[in-house]
From TrEMBL:
It comes from the Bacteria. InterPro entries: HDACs, His_deacetylse_dom, His_deacetylse_dom_sf, Ureohydrolase_dom_sf. Belongs to the histone deacetylase family. Pfam families: Hist_deacetyl. Gene3D superfamilies: Histone deacetylase domain. It comes from Desulfitobacterium hafniense (strain Y51). This is Histone deacetylase domain-containing protein. One of its GO terms (biological process) is epigenetic regulation of gene expression. Residues 71-274 form the Histone deacetylase domain. PANTHER family: HISTONE DEACETYLASE HDAC1, HISTONE DEACETYLASE HDAC1-RELATED.
Length: 441
């Protein structure tokens, strides 16, 4: 029998406010529903206890600035650590698949972290993926984000990684936070076309979303041939969600899960606490466990029952053509402090909506024909003026990119408020801070 692992972490001690849509009841109603329906008594269901991620687990993937101690990370470390618990169970073949029902969510948290944005501080899926790559030899990973909001943080972390395929299916960013996830966002100079953003019109329902999966996403995953498929299982595409405008049903989510057949799923958004989440989560769990989910029917009826229109088919055909036509337009810079090689320069900013400030970013990527390339991120908190840097040496880095990373690390120490070295190739993480010196994780 193929076992399905489940793990609940409601984060009782973490709150953005008693009436905030991201609150502990998101999981409590689901737990109650699963127990009432007898799902937890199914012989193939294995229940796991939460775990705790280490700061090295986190900083292998994300730069927490100015230091991890400057943030309240307790609940976030348990949410990330709980994902690692199921990841370990999957890697050791204790389970065939698993679903980490955890909060806080994580997919808006990117490569650099200066605060909370989109309810997210740590990126649970990204931390999980790099843990499995480090300790279990996973080479290629596909992430499919089915949250209604673009998974901009996850995309940011893996945008330059040729061995991670990131797919985000979401409501068009022109109509919804975070205002990104457009068809021309296709990956960095060493990872072109390993990012696939599919922005959909408000009102998209089951049949149209399943059509997208069957006719675009699944063929792309098949071509990529990943060792691991992760579902960022956001549930705010549901027709009752208060923060979005889509029309997917609980059974529609069951079918999404059945089609994707993910190895691991991690809960993201979804804020219709009573009208959707218990039913959507039930359908997802039943689909993972190989059980019939067709009897899962929520009490309300969809706002927009129409689906499967010829107009949507035409829209999707044009969207695919736009993706095909989008070409890279790299800005090559050769600033004096950069090591030898061609470096692509990508400036942008990140808005932290929870705390209301901007992060200014300058991203530099070393073009390389042999690996994912060294990545340098220069960051500035636009309110405090503090400056930070992240230097990433990728998994399977070539000798030249490894040396470039260490040259940058030595050059930047003393020139920023703090500097993080992520040597993913050798599982080495070091943080220099102007008041604390170097910390080895």
């Amino acid at each position: 029998m193929k076992n399905t692992g489940l793990l609940f972490f409601p984060a009782f001690d973490w709150s953005l406010g008693d009436t905030h849509p991201e609150r502990e009841e998101r999981l409590l109603y689901t737990q109650e529903q699963l127990f009432e329906e007898g799902v937890m008594d199914l012989p193939q269901i294995k229940h796991y206890a939460p775990g705790l991620a280490s700061l090295k687990d986190v900083q292998r993937t994300q730069g927490i600035f100015p230091t991890p101690e400057s943030h309240d990370l307790d609940a976030h470390l348990i949410a990330a650590g709980s994902s690692l618990v199921l990841g370990e169970a999957w890697a050791k073949k204790e389970i065939h698949n698993g679903f980490a029902l955890v909060r806080p969510p994580g997919h808006h948290s990117g490569a650099t972290v200066l605060g909370n944005r989109g309810f997210c501080t740590l990126n649970n899926e990204a931390i999980l993926i790099n843990h499995l790559r480090t300790f279990h030899g996973i080479k290629k990973v596909a992430i499919v984000d089915t949250d209604v909001h673009h998974g901009d943080g996850t995309q940011d972390i893996f945008y330059h990684d040729p061995n991670v395929l990131f797919v985000s299916i979401h409501q068009d960013g022109r109509t919804l936070y975070p205002g990104s996830g457009f068809i021309y966002e296709k990956g960095g100079p060493n990872a072109w076309e390993t990012t696939l953003d599919i922005p959909l019109p408000p009102g998209t329902g089951d049949e149209d979303l399943h059509h997208v999966l069957e006719n675009w996403v699944l063929p792309r995953i098949y071509d990529f041939q990943p060792d691991l498929i992760i579902n960022s299982a956001g549930q705010d595409n549901h027709f009752t969600d208060p923060l979005a405008s889509m029309s997917v049903t609980a059974r529609g989510y069951g079918r999404i899960t059945e089609l994707l057949n993910p190895d691991l799923a991690v809960l993201e958004g979804g804020y219709s606490i009573e009208g959707a989440l218990p039913y959507v989560n039930l359908a997802i769990v039943l689909a993972l466990a190989g059980e019939d989910y067709q009897g899962v029917i929520e009490p309300q009826k969809p706002r927009h029952p129409h689906s499967g229109s010829n107009a949507f088919r035409g829209f999707l055909k044009e969207l695919k053509e736009q993706y095909r036509r989008a070409k890279p337009d790299w800005n090559i810079r050769s600033d004096s402090f950069l090591p030898a090689g061609k470096w692509v320069y990508i400036p942008h900013s990140v808005y932290y909506d929870t705390e209301g400030f901007q992060e200014g970013r300058k991203d530099w990527i070393r073009q390389c024909n042999h690996c994912g390339g060294t990545v340098l991120i220069e960051s500035q908190h636009t309110v405090t003026g503090n400056t930070f840097a992240l230097v990433r040496i990728p998994f399977a880095a070539c000798e030249q990119c490894t040396q470039a990373g260490y040259d940058l690390w030595e050059h930047l120490i003393g020139r920023k408020t703090s500097v993080l070295l992520q040597d993913q190739q050798n599982n080495k993480v070091e943080l220099w801070h102007l008041d604390k010196g170097v910390t080895h994780f």
